[in-house]
Design goal:
The protein is mainly alpha-helical. It folds into 4 domains: about 5-75 and about 230-300, HUPs (Rossmann fold); about 80-230, Rossmann fold (3-Layer(aba) Sandwich); about 315-360, no CATH class; about 380-465, Arc Repressor Mutant, subunit A (Orthogonal Bundle). The chain is built from 20 helices and 12 strands. It has a 3-stranded parallel sheet, covered by helices on one side. A 3-stranded antiparallel sheet has the order 4-5-8. Helix 1 (about 20-35) links the parallel strand 1 (about 5-10) and strand 2 (about 40-45). Helix 8 crosses helix 10 and helix 16 (about 385-400) runs antiparallel to helix 20. The radius of gyration is 32 Å and the shape is elongated. The model has no long low-confidence stretch (mean pLDDT about 95).
């Protein structure tokens, strides 16, 4: 085996990128990237009827959104069919595989008789040791010669040593009667040819490992390190399915979760590093190890995802957050922000990203920067703009006309104005929110004024002071 770690993600392009697949890809990516290794992508498109270019694109888009970059070109499994068949023929020539001429009817009859006698229904072909000179001129499959005694031990980094008695293994078919290779053969040949050193995948593949090891051993190839990870369950402890909510990574992007929050949450789903919940990509790469993966299925928890997403939005670089916000708008079929609005939103990021858990929440808070005059207040905000409030705004506006536009100065002007009016600043906040944003829930009045600038702030206050209530 080479010294360099090589992992792979090998999805079937029959639909979107499932959340479970995304976590498998993330674990493989983290393991390789944290060790200076390579992370490869193989599209297992051998099911020609169900594999579609659209599904392949959905997988590529999902990985791109999650920021899981792969090395080199994505490999198509279907394109390697001739190479897979060639390996089966090599095993045939070496006497480690054989031609089986049994028909489906004969196999079925064998199983029914075995069941009636209380014997194992595992098919034992009479052609395994047959003299090639007696082979008929008829269709055949190529089967591997499975070991018949002893046991196969799958040394798994997550599950521990898993022992399977060899008399439980059948002589697996490698080539169908039409000469096409089976999936189990294709996986092994591709993993070997791609130099994969560590196979990290769902534990629903654990039973496949023993059968795939037969091919590795028959070819004299190094067996990769296995790491079979438990599946993801819903909050009710049952296998994650549509009834639990979103299954595809694309849906989480459209719900407005930031990719960093999603990566952090998926990494914590079944893997732990002490009590650490929130961590950066760099920390995840440094810390991730197969030993930290639990043996029990992880439960998907939307509240934890939201909490981590909020922390990542708060910690994000403003420009990077704006870039991802634009990506969210495109993914949801909305118009991206114009240059002018984007500049304003980036300027406002410091007061938008605290306590926003998703991009829709961030946009809601940014409404004051996204809306244009005339500001039309919503029903609740409109109630704050009665005749008394409007006359107060009319008095306040000239006070702000010559003020230096800093938070301290604005705050002083407002506080002194409220004192002269023998009221508290809190009483002014409602009308000011309504005038500046047309909403009753917004960032702080001072932050909105600083972001909008003096000219636009005064224009909005003047307009609101002159508006008739109702």
């Amino acid at each position: 085996m080479t010294d360099q770690v090589v992992t792979r993600f090998a999805p079937s392009p029959t639909g979107f990128l499932h959340i479970g697949g995304a976590r498998t890809a993330l674990f493989s990516w983290l393991y390789a990237r944290g060790r200076g290794g390579r992370f490869l992508l193989r599209i297992e498109d051998t099911d020609r009827e169900r594999s579609t270019p659209e599904a392949t694109q959905a997988i590529l888009d999902g990985l791109a959104w999650l920021g899981l970059d792969h090395d080199g070109e994505a490999v198509s499994q279907a394109a390697g069919a001739e190479r897979h068949a060639q390996v089966a023929r090599q095993l045939l020539d070496a006497g480690k595989a054989y031609k089986c001429f049994a028909t489906q009817d004969e196999i079925q009859a064998f199983r029914e008789a075995a069941k009636a006698d209380g014997r194992s229904t595992l098919y034992r072909s009479p052609w395994r040791d047959a003299d090639p000179a007696k082979h008929p001129d008829a269709p055949y499959v190529v089967r591997i010669k499975a070991p018949q005694d002893g046991a196969t031990v799958i040394a798994d980094r997550v599950q521990g040593d898993v022992t399977i008695r060899n008399d439980q293994l059948d002589d697996m078919v490698l080539l169908r009667s039409d000469g096409s290779p089976v999936y189990m053969l294709a996986v092994v040949v591709d993993d070997h040819d791609m130099g994969v050193t560590h196979v990290i995948r769902g534990d629903d593949h654990l039973s496949n490992a023993a059968r795939q090891m037969m091919i590795y051993q028959a070819m004299g190839w190094d067996v990769p390190v296995w790491a079979h990870i438990p599946l993801i369950h819903g909050p009710d402890g049952k296998k994650l399915s549509k009834r639990h909510g979103a299954l595809g990574v694309d849906e989480y992007q459209r719900m407005g979760y930031p990719a960093a929050g999603m990566r952090n949450y998926l990494a914590r789903l079944g893997w732990s590093h002490g009590d650490d919940e929130f961590f950066t990509d760099a920390q995840a790469r440094d810390w991730f190890d197969l030993d930290g993966i639990g043996k029990s299925p992880a439960r998907f928890d939307f509240k934890k995802l939201e909490n981590l997403s909020g922390q990542h939005i708060a910690a994000a670089d403003d420009a990077a957050l704006l870039h991802e916000l634009q990506g969210f708008l495109r993914a949801t079929g909305q118009e991206p922000l114009s240059d002018a609005k984007a500049t304003l939103v980036e300027k406002a990021m410091y007061c938008l990203k605290e306590r926003a858990k998703t991009f829709p929440e961030l946009i809601e808070k940014a409404e004051f920067a996204l809306t244009d005059r005339p500001i039309v207040p919503d029903e609740k905000a409109a109630k704050a703009l009665d005749n008394v409030s409007r006359s107060i705004l009319a008095e306040l506006t000239p006070q702000l006309q010559n003020a230096s536009w800093t938070k301290d100065v604005i705050e002083t002007v407002m506080t002194e104005f409220a004192e002269r009016k023998e009221t508290k600043f809190g009483k002014l906040a409602g009308p000011l929110r309504a005038a500046l944003a047309g909403r009753s829930v917004t960032p702080s009045v001072f932050d909105m004024m600083l972001v909008l600038g003096q000219e636009e702030t005064l224009a909005r206050l003047t307009e609101a002071a002159g508006r008739k209530p109702g």
